[in-house]
Amino acid sequence: MTAETQNRGWRAQFGTEAMGLGLALIAVVTVFSLLSPRFLSLATFDSVAFQLPELGLLTLAMLMPIVSGGINLAVTFTANICGLTLAWVLHAHGGPDASLAAFMLGSLLAIGVGTASGLIMGAVIAYTGAHPILVSLSMMIFLRGLGEFLTRGGDISGFPDFIQPLGHGSLLGIPIPLLILLAAVALWHVLMARTRLGFGTTMIGSNIEATRYSGINTKRVLVLIYALSGAMCAVAGIIMMARFNSVRVGHGESYLLITVLACFLGGVNPFGGFGKVVSVFLALVILQLFSSGLNLLGASQHLATAIWGLLLVGVMILRWASARLGFLRRR
Questions:
Q1: How many structural domains compose the chain?
Q2: pLDDT, position 310
Q3: What is the pLDDT of residues 48-101, one digit of tens each?
């Protein structure tokens, strides 16, 4: 196998965006290392490794709907309602004294709730033709209202000690939440690059009518996409509950913007049809390092959120400019 053949295979698997994002990652690390001598330290690595997983899992939940030409605006509230489901089960079985069996039961129910939420959205989108923005926005409002009603706007805390390692523990020096995220990234990469579901997701995002005429059951694929998105939200909700040692409806509301930004920064086509998991993961690492660097420089989290918003607008402008330049070159 020649070097050119290997290079083409690498680009097919991970996308050409991965190289540019790798250079951007080096640039971010270099700049913040010069601005703050504490940036390249074990404390920074630990901060990134423990904060990245919950955001990364929610971004994976957002990825497949966007590649299919849709979106899931309910990712954060789905994660929170799933975390609340697990918390209610634990409290029903003793709270801090709940057993491992109760935790397993609550986790299964939480994943079931997340999957059911996604199934409903996917079915409505697939069988009624409603726009994904409207459907997911309706689900977001419903889940938020339901959670606020059931918890009266408060939070639930007081869980067994064996849950804490899921949010704060390490295995062989690697944070357990990060290991869970890496496993999820590997699973999503296989789903998107190696399975018929991933192929169908990309085809639907490119042209849903042509995909339907090609013999692919587009309705079933859409339902599966949003069901898997809901299940991944449930995993994120469980990790968030373990990390915060509490759960409420409003946890992680600001993550919604960052999940969309990470997808677009990672090369996902905002109109669907293209997206690589590895590139999105690199974009997540860049965003988290950027946030940690701003914190070390004393900037507020509100400033970081504002910069992320500007980055989202900038990515859209750069994509438009790139597409326009490509068009002019072809002419």
A1: 1
A2: 78
A3: 888 888 889 999 999 999 999 999 999 999 999 999 999 999 888 887 888 889
Residue ranges with strand state E in 210-277: 246-247
Structure tokens at 41: 């330290």
User: Are 259 and 58 within 8 A, CB to CB?
Assistant: yes
**Closest to 116 (Cα-Cα) out of 89, 142, 152, 148:** 142
Residues of the chain by 3-state class (helix, strand, coil), percent to 5: 80, 0, 20
CA gap 66, 276 in Å, rounded: 11
Percentage with pLDDT > 70 across the chain? 91
Residues across the chain: 331
Predicted structure pTM score: 0.87
Residue 207, domain member (yes or no): yes
Cα 88 to Cα 82: distance, rounded to the nearest angstrom: 10
Report if residue 242 sits inside a domain.
Answer: yes
Calpha distance 125→120 (Å, rounded)? 9
Token pair recorded at residue 199: 């192929």
Contact 196, 190 (CB under 8 A): no
- Rounded CA separation 248/147 (Å): 8
Question: What share of the chain in percent tops pLDDT 90?
Answer: 35
Q: Using one digit for the tens of pLDDT, what is the confidence trace for 7-49?
A: 555 455 555 566 777 777 788 788 888 887 777 777 778 778 8
Phi, psi of 157 (to 5 degrees): -140, 175
Is the confidence at residue 102, as pLDDT, over 70? Answer: yes
Asked whether residue 239 is domain-assigned, the answer is yes
Task: Measure the CA–CA gap between 151 and 212, rounded to whole angstroms.
Answer: 43
Q: Which domain holds residue 67?
A: 39-253
Kindly state whether residue 320 falls inside one of the protein's structural domains. no
Max CA pair span of the chain: 70
